[in-house]
Design goal:
The protein has about 120 residues and is mainly β. Helices cover about 0% and strands about 60% of the residues. The protein contains no helices and 11 strands. The strands form 2 sheets. Strands 2, 4, 5, 6, 9, 10 and 11 form a 7-stranded mixed β-sheet that branches. A 4-stranded antiparallel β-sheet has the order 1-3-8-7, with no helix packed on it. The chain is globular and about 45 Å long. The protein starts with a strand and ends with a strand. The relative contact order is 0.32.
Length: about 120
C-alpha cells in the first residue's frame, strides 16, 4: 500500500487549497483514513479522521467549519478542502490509512505535502 499526497503550496491568509491523497495497492474502504499535520517545532496533530463506508467524519477543533474531506472512489483518492486558511495552518500535511484486522494493526503514511500560509 502506498499513499501519495499532493496539492500543497503557498497561499495567502484567507485563501484555499485542496490536498489530494491517492492510495495504491488497496482501497480506502478498508481503512480508517486521517489527515495529520506537523508544524516546525510542534508535535504531529490530527486534522481530520474518517471512515468512508460508515460516513463518519471527525474534525479537529482548529479546523472545524473550514476544512472538509471528500473522496473519489473511481480514483481511489481522498481530498482535504481547506478554506479560510490562516498562518497557523502552515505545516506539512500527511495522509494516513489505518486498519485493525484479526488483531493486527497496520498503518501507512504518505510522504507529506507542504502548506504555507502567508500573512
Amino acid at each position: 500500500v502506498q499513499l501519495v499526497e499532493s496539492g500543497g503550496g503557498l497561499v495567502q491568509t484567507g485563501g484555499s487549497l485542496r490536498l489530494s491523497c491517492a492510495l495504491s495497492g488497496g482501497t480506502f474502504d478498508d481503512y480508517t483514513v486521517g489527515w495529520f499535520r506537523q508544524a516546525p517545532g510542534k508535535e504531529r496533530e490530527g486534522v481530520a479522521c474518517f471512515s468512508l463506508p460508515d460516513r463518519v467524519f471527525y474534525y479537529g477543533d482548529p479546523v472545524k467549519g473550514r476544512f472538509a474531506v471528500s473522496s473519489d472512489h473511481a480514483k481511489n483518492t481522498v481530498y482535504l478542502q481547506m478554506n479560510s486558511l490562516k498562518p497557523d495552518d502552515t505545516a506539512i500535511y500527511y495522509c494516513n490509512a489505518y486498519r485493525l484486522r484479526y488483531g493486527l494493526a497496520t498503518t501507512y503514511w504518505g510522504q507529506g505535502t507542504q502548506v504555507t500560509v502567508s500573512s
